[in-house]
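Please fill in the sequence for the structure shown.

STRUCTURE ENCODING:
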């Protein structure tokens, strides 16, 4: 429907459309509920209800949509809960709940969604926790929880998500810790924790993430150090630590990151030195140290970074001089 902003209810005749595969009701801002007969749409594959601002609930009958693959409820700001019957959607692959600002919790039955691959919960500002049953989502590949401002931690069972590739927790301001079970996520490639200002440390078990390629910790302003086990991340290509203002040093083990291409340390204002082992990063192409105002010197071993292409150093006010070994880097562009 092109313009349904004034639509308050659906005509009953829609329930007779047995072959209907796509139903788009985006921006039906006056629609308060879906009728019971919605469950008669046995062929429905895609149901889009984005920006249905007055939608307060989904009826139990939605669980009868056995063919449904995509359910979009983004910006349904009045939606407070999902029905238990949602667990009956055996074909559901994508569940979009971004900016459902009144949603406080997910039903335990969500763990029954055996086909679910993508779960979007970003900016669900009242969501405080996830149910333990989320561990049963064996097909889940991507879990997005950015800007869930009341979320403090994940359930211990999160480690059982054997197919999970991306875990995004950016700007979860009250998120305090990753549990030890995070190390069990053998398929995890992307871990995003940008702006988690209450996060003080990473668990040692993070070193068990053998598939991890991208680790984003930008603006984790309470993070003081990285665990030694970080050196075990043999697949890590990108490590983002920009604006980690409490980070004082890097562990010696960082030199073991043989696949690391990009190391971002811009605005790490408490960082005083780099470990000598940094010279072992044979794949490193970009080392960003902009505005590291307390950095006093670079180790001589930096001259061993044979793949290094960019070494920005502007506003490193305490850096007196660069080591002569930097001249060995024939292709590096240094910006001071």
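FILLED IN BY: designer on duty
SEQUENCE:
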């Amino acid at each position: 429907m092109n313009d349904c902003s004034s639509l308050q209810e659906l005509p009953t005749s829609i329930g007779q459309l047995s072959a209907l595969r796509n139903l788009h009701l985006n921006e039906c801002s006056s629609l308060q509920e879906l009728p019971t007969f919605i469950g008669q749409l046995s062929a429905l594959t895609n149901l889009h209800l984005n920006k249905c601002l007055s939608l307060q609930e989904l009826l139990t009958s939605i669980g009868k949509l056995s063919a449904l693959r995509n359910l979009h409820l983004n910006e349904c700001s009045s939606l407070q809960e999902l029905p238990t019957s949602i667990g009956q959607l055996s074909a559901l692959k994508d569940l979009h709940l971004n900016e459902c600002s009144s949603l406080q919790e997910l039903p335990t039955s969500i763990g029954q969604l055996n086909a679910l691959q993508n779960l979007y919960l970003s900016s669900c500002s009242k969501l405080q926790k996830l149910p333990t049953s989320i561990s049963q989502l064996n097909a889940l590949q991507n879990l997005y929880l950015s800007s869930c401002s009341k979320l403090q931690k994940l359930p211990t069972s999160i480690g059982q998500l054997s197919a999970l590739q991306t875990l995004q927790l950016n700007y979860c301001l009250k998120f305090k810790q990753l549990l030890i079970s995070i190390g069990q996520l053998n398929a995890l490639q992307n871990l995003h924790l940008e702006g988690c200002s209450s996060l003080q440390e990473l668990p040692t078990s993070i070193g068990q993430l053998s598939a991890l390629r991208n680790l984003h910790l930008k603006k984790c302003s309470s993070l003081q150090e990285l665990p030694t086990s970080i050196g075990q991340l043999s697949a890590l290509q990108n490590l983002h630590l920009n604006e980690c203002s409490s980070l004082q040093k890097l562990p010696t083990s960082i030199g073991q990151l043989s696949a690391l291409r990009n190391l971002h340390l811009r605005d790490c204002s408490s960082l005083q030195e780099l470990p000598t082992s940094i010279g072992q990063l044979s794949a490193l192409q970009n080392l960003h140290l902009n505005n590291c105002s307390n950095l006093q010197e670079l180790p001589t071993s930096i001259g061993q970074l044979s793949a290094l292409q960019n070494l920005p150093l502007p506003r490193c006010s305490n850096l007196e001089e660069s080591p002569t070994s930097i001249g060995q880097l024939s292709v590096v562009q240094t910006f001071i």
